Structures are given as C-alpha cells and as structure tokens.
Amino acid sequence: RKDLLITYQVDILQKPDSKLDEMMKNISEDAFGEKIASFSLSLKKGRSSFILNNEAFIDQNVRDIFTIKTGYRGPTIYKNDSLLTFMKKGLLKKDYVLSSSINNYTVTNERKVISGYNCFKATAIKTVENSAGTFNHKIVVWFTPELPYQSGPLYFVGVPGLVLEAHTKDCVFYASKIEFKEKVDIYSMPNAEVITELQFAQML
Fold this sequence. Notes:
This protein is mainly beta and 204 residues long. It has helices at 19-25, 60-70, 197-203, and strands spanning 3-12, 38-44, 47-52, 76-79, 82-87, 96-100, 106-114, 117-130, 133-144, 162-167, 171-181, 193-196. The chain has a 12-stranded mixed β-sheet, with helices on one face. A hairpin with a 3-residue loop joins β10 (162-167) and β11 (171-181). The longest helix has 11 residues, at 60-70. It is globular, with a radius of gyration of 17 Å.
C-alpha cells in the first residue's frame, strides 16, 4: 500500500465573554489563516507523525494562544499504541518527550461522508490535570475505515480507522487534502527525557 499525507486545517471556536478570545481579536486574521493553522499527518505502515506546517511564521504570543486553544505542543509520533510528543524548551527548563495516554472511544451508529469517505462518529472523555485541578472534556471524532490506516491528528487516535475530523470544546480539526504518496517522511523524535502527562502537569 502507498504512504499517505493528509493536510488538516483547524477552526478556533470563539466563546462570548472569554478573555482569551478577546486577546485573539487583537491578532490579525491572517495569523490564524491557512499559512499557520495547517498541519500534516504523514502515514507509513505501522506509524505516523503529526506536525504544524510553517511553524516559523508564528510569534510567541500567537503560539501560546494557539497551544492553549488546539492542544498542539509539538511534533507527535504514533506507533504501536504509543503516543509521543516532542516539547521544545520554553515554559519548561529543557526539552522533553511527552508520553500521552490513548483515549477510550465509544463508536456510535452515526455516519457521514467526509471527502468522499464514509465516516463513523466516536466519542471519548479526555482528562486534563494541571495546577488548577482535574478537568474532563468531551471529544468527538469522525473516522473512516475505508483508508488503510488507524491514526489521526494530534492525540485523536485509538479508533478503528483514520480520523478525518475531530471536535473539542475549543477547536475543530478537519482534513482538507488527502494524498497518496510513494514515500512520506516520518518525523524523527529527538533524544530527550520522557515524561508522563502527570509529570508534565506537576512541572507547570
């Protein structure tokens, strides 16, 4: 089978009376346009990587808001049910590789067609721990079993197919282009200390 390259866009959901969204209004529309809010999911047999395109165009203020809203912390690799994210030195004192747990999804009977592929709806609850406490957020994904891969953008993995659309309380990821390739490059994870989500939360 051929390798696969999927381009995802993201829509940031704005909420009334949100201080964070008020900050976003002061950032030019172009900052959250196609150049920056574009991601690539590269898939080969048994592994995939998810990266932000044109990351160099993002200044630190935009990046901080973008991270909060989308949950994107850095390049992610999914292989053998292992989900690893490289986090560059920033808020933390050094580079780390974050090992994340896989969400447990419930597949429903709801269906829709995305980019010509039949998709099924699945839901999960993602638990987030930080200094403010423990929070549970609902996740909705739409995946297709018609493509020969089981993966998805960011941490939206763990369903029996390829995730083409994902919804959180803050944003929506959606596949805008699906390309079959003879060869794609998978991100090579740098050598850094591996930490868990709980360890990461305790560092903040």
